[in-house]
Amino acid sequence: MKGNFSEIIKSTKNKMLNYASNLNFEKAQDLKEKIEILQNYQSKSTIVSPKIKNLDVFSILSDDDYAYINYFNINNGSIIQSYNLEVKKKLQENDQEILIIGIIEIRLKFNSKNDEIITNIEVSYPSKENLKIYVPKIGEKKDLINLSHRNAKYMRIERINKSIQTDKNKKFERVLEKLKKDLNLDKTPLHIECFDNSNLQGSNPTSSCVVFKNGKPSKKDYRHYKINTVVGIDDFASMKEVVNRRYKYLIKEKLDLPQLVVIDGGKGQLNAAFEALINLEIQDKISIISIAKRLEEIFTIDNSYPINIDKRSESLKLIQSLRNEAHRFCLRLHRNLRNKNLKKSEFDNIKGIGDKTREKLLKKYKSIKRIKKLDFIELEQLIGRVKALIVFKFFK
After folding, report:
1. Residue 71 phi, psi (nearest 5)
2. Most confident segment among 166-170, 188-192, 300-304
3. Residue 283 within a domain
4. Domain annotation covers residue 294
5. How many beta carbons lie within 10 A of that of residue 193, not counting itself?
6. Residue-wise over 86-120: b if at least 16 C-beta within 10 A, else e?
7. Residue 227 and residue 280 in one domain
8. Do residue 305 and residue 377 come from a single domain?
9. How is the chain split among helix, strand and coil, in percent rounded to 5?
10. What is the extent of the structural domain holding 238?
């Protein structure tokens, strides 16, 4: 596995021929298959010409804070070892100084005995007999340096991406700690849920629950609700129903409860939601607030007046993001239900006209508005005299 294929293949071939000459063809075939596997592996792992025997490849890339060193150990044209080293700059070291330290450390780590080293920059390596170190300008060795340098670039890009992600995570941690302080919570709200109701003149009442975990949307946990027990427009009763259904389910399934619940609305909606928590006996396990749209005021259960949060604060922006996401998600279901009902409501009132006839008419004329304008002859040609008479009379 160190890449010394030639000697292994040679000795295995000799054994194979020996078995064959002694008519032991099964063992000879077994060795032949092993040779083919070795040759296939060697051909796939050959990056440059097999003429290149044993050498070490080093390249370095750096920015203001870090240096990135890539290393290849080449044996018979194959890369048998690859290693990346990230070096944090402490003083005003230049690339040459960092690379020398990296070469010494990496060669010691992998116990490299290669007496040839190629690099992407000129370095003065500590004197050693029979050790050749240089920068190739052309040919296959130059290609190896280019490949190594690309690996160093990828290492730098990965570090930058990780740094960006770390910064984002730190930002969310900071915002959640700020939210905990602003709302005077006992626990950091790593799991927050927000509820919103939507209806149009009392029709198609719906509600939504969106979930944020670690300050970010967890869309797989979003839920839509159709209001079942409320007649007409009663936002308070609707909020109580949906909060009760949500946490009754979580308790039954033994799922984690949120640290914070946000209600889209004022003090009335907040009190209704809190009643649902009391009914489930979890009012001491969950903190609950509401955000009123008009002045973006934050209400809590214990205070009749809104609490004061800086309008520019990150914690308020997080609450607004939750509210806006819940509103968007709720409206999506509400619009779908409303459009569905509007599309079929008039046809549902025509006795004697079934689904197939409705589909045939809508497929040809696209809308009820166009169907209303049809004369009797056109209707008769499409759906027959009896059904045409029913539709014509209903609309005319």
Report:
1. -130, 135
2. 188-192
3. yes
4. yes
5. 29
6. ebeeeeeeebeebbbebbeebbeeeebebebbbbb
7. yes
8. no
9. 50, 20, 30
10. 191-340
In a domain, 169, yes or no: no
| DSSP β-bridge partners for residue 223 | 209
57-87 pLDDT, tens digit per residue, is 999 999 888 899 999 988 877 787 889 999 9
262 and 385 housed in the same domain: no
Q: Which two tokens stand for residue 153?
A: 């670039």
For residues 145 and 222, what is the distance between their CA atoms, to the nearest angstrom?
Answer: 50
Same-domain check for residues 17 and 103: no
Q: Is residue 176 part of a domain?
A: no
Same domain, 319 and 355: no
Residues near 2 by beta carbon (within 8 Å), at least 6 away in sequence: 75, 80
One domain, residues 302 and 223:
yes
How many CB atoms are closer than 10 A to CB 63? 11
- Cα separation, 76 vs 79, whole angstroms: 9
Nearest residue to 119 via CA among 92, 94, 139, 137? 137
Q: pLDDT tens-digit profile of 169-216?
A: 778 888 999 999 999 999 999 999 999 987 654 556 788 999 999 989
259, 286 contact by CB (below 8 A)? yes
d(CA 242, CA 227): 7
> How many domains does the chain fold into?
4
Q: Which CATH number characterizes residue 125's domain?
A: 3.30.420
The label of the residue with tokens 């004197």 reads 127
Task: Indicate the length of the chain as a whole number.
Answer: 396
> Would you state the torsion angle of the CA atoms of residues 169, 171, 177, 178, taken in this order, to the nearest 10 degrees?
-160
Give the up-direction half-sphere exposure of residue 318: CA atoms within 13 A in the CB hemisphere. Answer: 31
Q: What is residue 115's DSSP assignment?
A: S
Cα torsion 167, 215, 323, 337: sign: positive
